Amino acid sequence: MGLKFNEKQKKAWALLASKGKTRFLFDGGSRSGKTVLITEYLVRRALQFPGSRQLAARKHKTHAKASLWNDTFRRYLSAGLPRSCYRMNETELTICFKNGSRIVVGGLDDSDRMEKILGNEYITVFLNEATQLSYEAMQMAVTRLAQKVRDARGREAVPKLILDCNPRGPRHWLHYVGVRHVDPDTEIELPNVDKWVRLNWSAHDNRENLPAEYLAALEALPELMRDRMLNGIWRDNQGAVYEEFDEDLHGVEPFPIPDDWKKVRAIDFGFTNPFVCLWGALDPDGRLYLYREHYQAAVRTAEHARKILELSGNERYGFTAADHDAAERAELSSAGIRTEAAFKEVTAGIQSVKNRLAKQGDGKPRLFFFNTLKNTLSEIYDYRWAQGNDSRNAKEEPVKLNDHAMDALRYMVAALDRRTGGEFRSASAPARQSGRW
Ligand SMILES: Nc1ncnc2c1ncn2[C@@H]1O[C@H](COP(=O)(O)OP(=O)(O)OP(=O)(O)O)[C@@H](O)[C@H]1O
Ligand SMILES: [Mg+2]
Fold first, then answer.
1. Is the pTM of this model over 0.85?
2. Least crowded by CB within 10 Å, which of 152, 202, 286, 357?
3. In Å, what is the CA distance from 240 to each residue of 178, 212, 243, 310, 384?
4. Model confidence pLDDT, tens digit, residues 287-336
């Protein structure tokens, strides 16, 4: 479609065409040019093989529509192909080409939709942000790579699976499968290991197409996030207090909080350090969603109070837990923000948070974060245990640095967990034993 590829994209294009290779993982930094290259490849396959089908899917249909359909395919098709060559069906999320080929965009989150999508056969399956999917979903998609079509010269299409993602921890199934080419359970080499190709990307690879400020912002991230999002390295959270934190599991796209969900707030004071207020909401099952943050240093308490009131709007709160400073709490109170003194015991508070981060029997944790809470998420990665000289004591206290949102988070969760009974559970919740919310 006339894009000028960067060097990494040229290499990726050559790999996609290489003989005998049918399984591809492009893993790497944020905005390194992976998805754009794959998009172009899907269009190229559709044009080369008349009547062929390509699938471009990610976990959630809403995300597939926003990112793949609107941001990627719409932009690149309109820039690169005459309108008469293709038609975009907005309800079906299908691109139909004049030669009878199709690109189907979809989500694998809804079983009816998935059945419909996977009821077809394809010559190309692209799974975008594949770390968000399960290994089973990937295997299911692979079984649909069975369409038989030929190009104008009579050559049969070789079915191809293409995965892209940003790196996570090295124990993720996709690291086993796509990077090490071993079975995630047995760690035995995959039977089709010679079909696999992996290409690792860095945001620097796409320097020519990114604003300098964007790369500078990635450089400024906490080390773990910088390694993953800039350099494209698979790294785990080892040594982090909340090493079980996983953005794919605990991070959620923002959504409007239903009116009947109970809401709470927690505040950690600061002037030289940031002052933090966090907002949380409980769903009917008692799962806690952190949905808003106010995070600012070098401003007086009265100004924070004004900002908190503005952000809170008409919302009502079960409680606002705050750090103990009496003068600050009095000032908030005179501005109309009543607080209760937080439970500040560090080890117990951390344990309460860790309990909520752990997956329950249904595979879901009880603590989620809107992925827009940049400061809170950044602190989660930075929050580390102090390494004492005596290794036996190494894990008792976290490093007191960049821990302001972490303090507020502890106050909120501890205040919730110390309340027994259903006082703050959202209205439609079924009766439940105490302590579960
Ligand atoms: N060859 C190119 N020419 C012009 N712009 C490009 C090119 N390749 C990528 N871009 C632009 O760079 C940005 C990032 O590209 P892309 O979305 O493909 O990255 P990505 O590796 O998929 O990132 P993420 O991991 O965040 O999904 C986009 O805005 C895209 O339009
Ligand atoms: Mg992408």
1. no
2. 152
3. 26, 30, 5, 34, 4
4. 999 999 999 988 999 999 999 999 999 999 999 999 999 999 999 999 99
Q: How far apart are CA 408 and CA 376, in angstroms?
A: 10
What is the 271 CA–ligand 2 centroid distance (Å)?
38
Can you give the residue ranges of every domain in the chain? 7-209, 247-418
pLDDT class for 1, splitting at 50, 70, 90? Answer: low
Q: Which CATH number fits domain 7-209: 3.40.50.1220, 3.30.950.10, 3.40.1010.10, 3.40.50.300?
A: 3.40.50.300
The residue whose C-alpha atom lies closest to atom 29 belonging to ligand 1 is 31
Distance 89 CA to ligand 2 centre (A): 22
CATH code, 247-418: 3.30.420.280
* Nearest ligand, CA 206: 1
Ligand 1 binding site (Cβ under 6 Å of any ligand atom): 3-6, 9, 30-36, 166, 206, 209
Residue 391 tokens, joined: 């290794």
> Which ligand approaches the C-alpha of residue 3 most closely?
1
Q: CA of 262: how far to CAs of 90, 257, 354, 424, 431, in Å? A: 37, 10, 21, 6, 15
